[in-house]
Amino acid sequence: MAEITLKGLAHSYVAAPRGAEDYAIREMDHVWQQGGAYALLGPSGCGKSTLLNIISGLLSPSRGEVLFDGQTVNDLPPEARNIAQVFQFPVVYDTMTVRDNLAFPLRNVGASEAHVAERVKEVAEVLELTDQLGRKAKNLTADEKQKVSMGRGLVRDDVSAILFDEPLTVIDPQLKWKLRRKLKEIHKRFAITMVYVTHDQLEASTFADKIAVMYEGQVVQFGTPSELFETPNHTFVGYFIGSPGMNFLDVAVRDGRVMAGEIPLPVSEALCAAVAEAETTNVKLGIRPEFVEVHDAPVEGGMQARVEHIQDLGTYSIIDLRLGDMPLKARIDEDQPPPGEIAYLRFPGERVGLYVDEFRVEVQA
Ligand code: ADP
Ligand code: MG
Asked: Mean pLDDT, to the nearest integer, of 150-165?
């Protein structure tokens, strides 16, 4: 078991990379602590698989170091790194039985047959494969094969870490939910470092204690699900986490006031000063739909907005608004009466984030 440190890591698949856009992994540092249950969350193509393959040693990074418990492993081949990896699509030996498939990683490292039998039994029970142990893998369904594939990843209890690369993609939704619970159980029982790759925020937050959000080859935030929700560090996190994502308004200071287009925003002096000081025109104010206060009559400091659409989702509604010419979403609970054609909005100071060149800057509310 190990703490995994990535130091100054960068990777390009291009022989002579020119700019940042030629890098699948852009210069990054990161630590996965021993025993954590982590998710690596990001859209397709952001570099998740590349990162896992660098950790497991299937891929050698262009620059930087991979350390296990402080020791560099860059020169170690995958076998010597003691990492189990489960891929998106099943990796099983068709001609072997389920039992032999599960036993394979253990026999490979010379485990005693008594230990093999014990672990195979245990893993098969967890994954509900006990009845299938005698069957040839080629006769299994895609779901069952992927369960075997996961079992092969879980069967060794002496690995440094287990890496899962979108392992539930081919599994049907019902079973998916169940397997994710099981993985969580297994994690609790064995305290092995687990990194679970997904592009699904729900999957990430049900599995992981801490989520690394990846965007364009970098981890832009590493935090608990509630940290990602409450204080997104990067506009991408705001937009990607939450449903719908965070609202972002382009802002600038004019005549001493923070303006979103033609609309003056009633915000704190500190925020106004921070916007004025920014050395770029890429300045955005972020607020989550949940935190936009919606009133159906004028209120002090309220900004008038047009109500374009209200979507009733049972316990809450999503309101599409237009503030000046900018679209904005708000979420209200079912017990709040929906506004008419005009709504009056307030942004509570402590719920507003300021983003300069896409990264959040701290401002006193
Ligand atoms: P993810 O797993 O997040 O979908 P990947 O790590 O697979 O992302 O890919 C990151 C980027 O690297 C993408 O732009 C992808 O096209 C590119 N890439 C991935 N694998 C290769 C490869 N073997 N050769 C060249 N480019 C690759
Ligand atoms: Mg991938």
From this structure: 93
